[in-house]
Amino acid sequence: MEKRPNILIFMTDHQRRETMPGYGWCHAPNLTAFAKDSIQFDNAVCTAPHCCPSRASFFTGLYPSDHGVWNNVVVGNTLSRGLAAGVRTWSEDLKDSGYRMFFSGKWHVSAEESPAERGFTVLYDNRKYSGFHRSDADRVPDTHEWERYEKGLCDVSAPRRPGEIKREGYPEYFLYGKNEQPFNDQLTVDAAVRQLNRLDKGEGPWCMYVGTLGPHDPYCVPQKFLDMYDPESICLPENFHDDMQDKPALYRRTQRRYAQLTEKEQREALRHYLAFCSYEDALFGQVLDALRQNGLYDDTVILYLSDHGDYAGAHGLWAKGLPCFREAYDVPLMVHMPGGRAGRNSYPVCLTDIAPTILEMCGISAEHRMQGVSLMPLLTGIGVMPERPYRFTQSNGNELYGIQRAVYSNKWKYVFNGFDDDELYDLENDPGELHNLAQDPQYAGVIRMLWRELWMFARENHDTILNPYIMTALAPYGPGIICGKND
């Protein structure tokens, strides 16, 4: 495109890919209409199943091993509070090239920097949830977190209420409920719409990021969206009943928390989650309406996506975390591009691809390293995308830490769990990831092949899981298998 486009990004939190149009899970009239002149990517994933590292990958085009954000940047026991020195975001590049930059909602990339320090004018800082709390005290364990235990603790002697998960000595927790203003998402959208209504088209191109928090747990939504779903029609995922006896003990320990809920409550949780996705669809519709009413829609690249997925009942789990199942990694991604293409695309996309894509569509040549590739050939039909036979994920855990790396192709998925036994799944014959084959000796050759891919990726992307000390080097095959030794 000769004229530099405007860009609007709408990013949700915890949204599973199957809530997009065409999957039959969710009432999403605005996304369904949006899909008619957009490309919907049916094979998009994030780099890590947590907000902060995944959002950092989105903004930088890098994996956690390069951008340095491994976990929740604002909790007391955090290992990293922000991006590594020298790491640059695409928002800075756009700002430097003359774009007007606007930000509303959730940040959660750094506790040391706000969006303003990465090129944005902040319209609404959802500080309560945004992940920006700069203070010298944040560099040491956050002792004020003890305050929450002084009030509102769970009463384990009382009967358990619908949706409640009891944990003695912890605050009350309900997996689902009702809230007419969940996570201030309406305020986030209101601020964005106000800015769209007052934009001066003659001042040059602009970029706006709108970051909502839904459908993050707990799934507390307005009643009108719950009314869209008949409780009797809700079906849990086919792999819901996985007992996970062949999987890491941490997975089963997490599952036991949710096992307090009856199957009826689990279905009700899914109903609330789907209703939350419909609420986000309605908010997105408000932004689209503002674009159209102000004559901006046809000149604007619009991206709808999420930072990571949600188990949403898969394997008896909810939310996200160290269990390395696809539901936490698969994300929605839809892109409307003026003069671009529409339809569905199965190319394997990663959130690291968004940064180079935005820069190319804006005519900016990045001088800093990015691990993603531009999706412009898919959006314009001009050019060829590189083959991607393997995908990779990186996690060191979040508040509960554990080294985890995964590599997968269309056929095989291997998960290295430094904290427990590993996993191997035959995705062609077991797409629900129910049968762990990692301990079967007949697959030793497959595992060694996948470890070669993992170690090559680690070498190319500065991963530091290399320590050969006997108590930490627990991989079945070490980095030396790609160095010409023992082949």
Span between termini:
49 Å
Indicate the proportion of strand residues: 15-25%
> What is the CATH top level name of the largest domain?
Alpha Beta
Which ranges are low-confidence, i.e. pLDDT below 50, for 5 or more consecutive residues? Answer: none
- How big is the Rg? 22 Å
Helices, by number, come to 13
Structure description:
With 487 residues, the protein is α/β, with parallel strands linked by helices. It has 2 domains: 341 residues, Alkaline Phosphatase, subunit A (3-Layer(aba) Sandwich), CATH 3.40.720.10; 74 residues, Arylsulfatase, C-terminal domain (2-Layer Sandwich), CATH 3.30.1120. The chain is built from 13 helices and 16 strands. The strands form 4 sheets. Strands 5-4-7-1-9-10-2-11 form an 8-stranded mixed sheet, with helices on both faces. Strands 13-14-15-16 form a 4-stranded antiparallel sheet, covered by helices on one side. Helix 6 packs parallel to helix 9. The protein is globular, with a radius of gyration of 22 Å. It starts with 5 loop residues before the first strand and ends in a 27-residue tail after the last helix.
